[in-house]
## 1
Amino acid sequence: MIELANVEKIYKNGDAETRVLKNISFKVNDGDFVAIMGPSGSGKSTLMHIIGALDRPTSGSYVLDGRDVSKLSDDELALVRRDRLGFIFQAFNLLPRATVLRNVSLPLVYAEVPAEERDRRAGDALRAAGLPEDRWNHLSNQLSGGQMQRVAIARALVNNPAIILADEPTGNLDTKTGELVLHTFQRLNQEQKRTIILITHEPYVAEHADRIISVRDGEIVEDKHNGNKRVVNDHSHAAI
Amino acid sequence: MLLSDLLHETYSAVAVNKARSGLTILGIVIGIASVVALTAIGQGVQATIQSSIQGIGSNLLIVTPGAPRGVGQEVSAGRGNAQTLKLDDAAAIGQLDGIKAVASEVTRSYQITAKGTNTNTRVDGTVPEYLTVRNVEVAEGSFIDEGQVTSLAKVAVIGPTTRDDLFGVGSTDAIGSVLRINKIEFKIIGVTKAKGGSGFSNQDDVVFIPITTAQRFLSGNVYVNTVSVSVADASGMTAAQQAVTQLLLDRHHIGDPLLADFSVMNQSDIVAAATSVTSTFTILLASIAGISLLVGGIGIMNMMLTNVTERTREIGLRKAIGAERKDISRQFLAEAVMLTFLGGGIGVALGWLIAWATTKFASIAAQVTLPSVALAFGVSAGIGILFGWYPARQASSLNPIEALRYE
Ligand SMILES: Nc1ncnc2c1ncn2[C@@H]1O[C@H](COP(=O)(O)OP(=O)(O)OP(=O)(O)O)[C@@H](O)[C@H]1O
Ligand SMILES: [Mg+2]
């Protein structure tokens, strides 16, 4: 369960203050599929970093699974991220000189999972993200943008996180591959009851979620149930 | 993080930037190699000097002119320049009980020429007793005899090294030839047996002439540089040393032993004096080496700091996906330690090689000792941990989001 109350984020740069998030309050229940939508620069990524326990709000409270994040130590936050959360960063953030498999299994390295199990789980995640097997031993900087995105998705799935945070996960993908990814999220949400928070600026992508929170200039302008959810069915992309 | 993963990460990080890792390792290699090699050479010199002092003869007392000035200074360059001892003093010592033989010497270096070749060597004016007192043997011909001392004969006995330098290695026609010291001709009557020793303690590079000849034609005065006294048996050494001191004080009319114008040393005094000089020398070498080790360590710290800056985004990512502070700091610490251990290992091998080459080509028996290797290795490990710790801590305390944004 994610509970934000009056969250603010202010960046100070010398005398200049930038209020990136203003008075953000909402709750996400376990098993929800929520899209956060807004134009570029509206504070979506900043919000995701706070929800993902990567950054602390300047003021306001954030309670994750009943624990006040502002009261946790850096290492406790690291364990929360390792065991409960999966991130897909807007900029992918892959290790450039490591293979695809190594990149995907890195969260498991820190969870001290033995090597064989790590490779098996990384393979499962890569399959779920739709990256062809002949790319698995490539270095991550030898991949196309779309392939990198799928590696980033696989890495977010590999530790079976209860909450998946995806920042523009389809931004670099063609429609078909994008749909595969959205289908993967829907399946994880429906079959495994994982919480999904999907960040996008495209209404079309947001419509795959059950609930859409719209952000503008750091404020929530709309928070509604998505009445006409788009459902991607299995056979529409069987070719990938 | 499992140990195998830590090693894997460390290895790939070090291997990615081979040139930079190599240069950093080189800094440590030079530091460690110089510690190992220089201390080995220092200790080799010390051992060489000690053995050559022990080789000059047993049960030996050395009387030199000039006041005793305390251990360490007694072997200084000024020793023997004072003019207080005469042949009469030596003769009087010879009359004491328990003295086996006495040999006076007048010693100085000269340019020697023979048949167009020349060499610079020590000319030692002495007496026939020198053979007994200093354990010298004659290989060919004969040594200076009593008659030649009395008659101020211009004869010379040369050491094997001098023979090699003047007449060619192993030459047999030295005897009967003529050599010139200070434009004065001397007839060669004998060659001594090789005694060994090397460098500045070579006992084979010498020309012996009758002491009286040396006084009359070379030094031009009646003083002697050294009186070597051979004591009949080892248990009489202390008594003999006291007797010689008292005798000379009486002969020189000196009441207070502290004002003595000569000094009487036994072998262990000389060894102690020489050791204190050579250990100062070894410490000097070791501290020079220590400085280069420190510089190598700073090289590691520099590389690790650059590393942390360059890999800020990577650190941010690792933290974002669940790395704890200790995971990050261990990774960077392990890199520093791996670099120092590689450098340490290669450095010890290189230092050993230099010591070996010195022994082989410079005739100093350099001794690589376990403590110096252990010290060098310990210091390099220490440096790795010390100089790796700060960058590692810097890396581990980065905020993940700021690190990910870093350009
Ligand atoms: N460290 C920072 N210091 C100052 N301002 C910042 C900092 N990080 C973000 N901002 C500002 O916060 C605002 C929101 O940034 P954010 O990355 O959250 O936007 P976004 O909604 O994700 O945009 P996009 O869709 O383009 O990714 C931007 O105006 C940005 O300039
Ligand atoms: Mg963004």
## 2
Amino acid sequence: MTSIDPSLSGRDETSAVEEAPAQRGTGIWVLGLAAAASWVGVAALIELWPEIIPQPYGRELAIISLVIALGLVIVAATGRLFGVAAITTRYYGPWFVAAAIVVGGWEIVTAKAGLLPVPFFSSPQSILEVFFDDWGRLGISVWYSVLLLAKGYFFGAAAGFVTGVTIGWSRAASYWVHPLLRLIGPLPATAWLPLAFFIFPTSGSASVFLIALATAFPMTILTWSGIASVNRDYYDIARTLGAKPSFLILKVAIPAALPHVFVGLFMGLGTSFAVLVVAEMLGVKAGLGWYLQWAQGWAAYANMYAALLVMALMCSSLITILFRVRDWTLSWQKGLVRW
Amino acid sequence: MVALATNTGVASAAAGQKIDIQSVFHQFELEGEPLPVLDGIDFSVEPGSFVALLGPSGCGKSTLLRLLAGLDHPTKGDLKVDGENVGDPDPSRIMVFQDPTLFPWRTVWDNVSLGLEARGILKKSRQRVDDAIQLVGLDGFDKAYPHQLSGGMAQRVALARALVNEPRLLLLDEPLGKLDSLTRLTMQTELVGLWQRAGLTAVLVTHDVEEALFLTQRVLIFGPRPARIVADLKVDLPYPRHRGDPRLAELRREALGHLGLAATW
Ligand SMILES: Nc1ncnc2c1ncn2[C@@H]1O[C@H](COP(=O)(O)OP(=O)(O)OP(=O)(O)O)[C@@H](O)[C@H]1O
Ligand SMILES: [Mg+2]
């Protein structure tokens, strides 16, 4: 989660599609039909090959496979009728084939042939079972995780931004804060965990503090370096035009530093995920981290896979949201740097 | 390009400022060594006149303009504008830098309005921004970002950004250096027209001898660093001038002589 490089990953599906004109055709989409066939294959595999240990929800998984296949057939036949959805589906055509192969293979080595040790490796339908039967608990866990993360991330990002701007601007602040930052900053936020749970009145507030701490460090460093690397000519120009220090900070330094600030936001988000999960496992009795811990206690491995999947979706959605915010805020950078 | 005569809002008459420079010395530090740049500069500029500073590259012309703008302070000597020592930068003295250095996150319109916004008078004077953009011939590009402009267009935005403030002293550091030769000729004529109508004092730094002679009333020629003034040429020709004027050719020969380039003529 920590190797998030915004300069590499901002290219979205639609722009990539434009680079692959071969995928754009409006006629019958052969690869799509092949992908549909492979999903029909998955469904057939589930229905026709008897399971070593009978499992529920095999039928549901087969139906879902058929629905995916049906969707692919529709897109293959209708061309670009469904706009962006169709374009995106066509772009990910090879992925649909690959996913069918993975799900089918996984099905074979777990439920069908039983090649992998049974309790530790759950079959696809047993994970599906978790989503069907335990969605209430999973859903509330996601909600608690997002809530906790939002609080910690907000305070951490705000504190880091303000600190970064202050030490980037004021020599005196930099003199005092820099050594502290050098000393305390690299300390993993989780190292504070025992102390934080002891000092703070509730484990919830302790977790907010830890997540904020983890977010604040990269945010401070990058905001600071952003402010420090602002072209000095910008200040000279603004000063000759009559700008006061407040204008120089708010309208010159901060906008010029924003690209760096967003790198800090991305890095802070990455580190905050790690702290979130640890804090939930050790302190707060809620959230996806706690769910994982709880599932482990009951040796409910399928629940752990399901929680991991949900967690991955949650983290990548948050990253995507941040990318959207950046794209909107820094739209002036388009054409200036390679996104 | 819009003719100057159509413009009314920008740079309406405010009397130009008087400049008095008395034995100004200035030096920088370069790797621990003092680097003398200005070595006893002495001259005055009458209010409302147009002066060119000509000299070899690296001699200290931009440095002198920065001192006049109040961005730096001289190591020694007095710089007075309208009888007062130059302190901090003031919007009555506006500098157009060698690089346009537009703010990349602001549109053309927002770049031009920067000074008015900084002084908190933008609300009352939005029309001035439109006028300034029109003056430099960029109407229709209000919403463009700097990276969508050509080098010459960016330089014109920088000029508009200065003019919108109705300065009384305009410090121009090779403002036409990046323009193609055609736009350059047009802009030269427009600069003269602008200066004549606005009644401001203008100091133009340039490498181009013809430009200095065609535009200004007086050309100060600097020697190599550390700079002193080696010649003070009066360009005693009325406006509008003609580029083919034999008197300009004469003055040009004289100026090149002072720059040590007589042999090339
Ligand atoms: N901030 C600085 N620190 C150190 N030296 C500087 C600094 N600014 C300028 N100099 C030096 O001062 C000298 C004069 O610089 P200046 O920019 O005034 O030259 P210039 O006459 O404008 O040249 P050009 O015509 O090429 O623009 C140069 O030798 C330069 O190296
Ligand atoms: Mg210069």
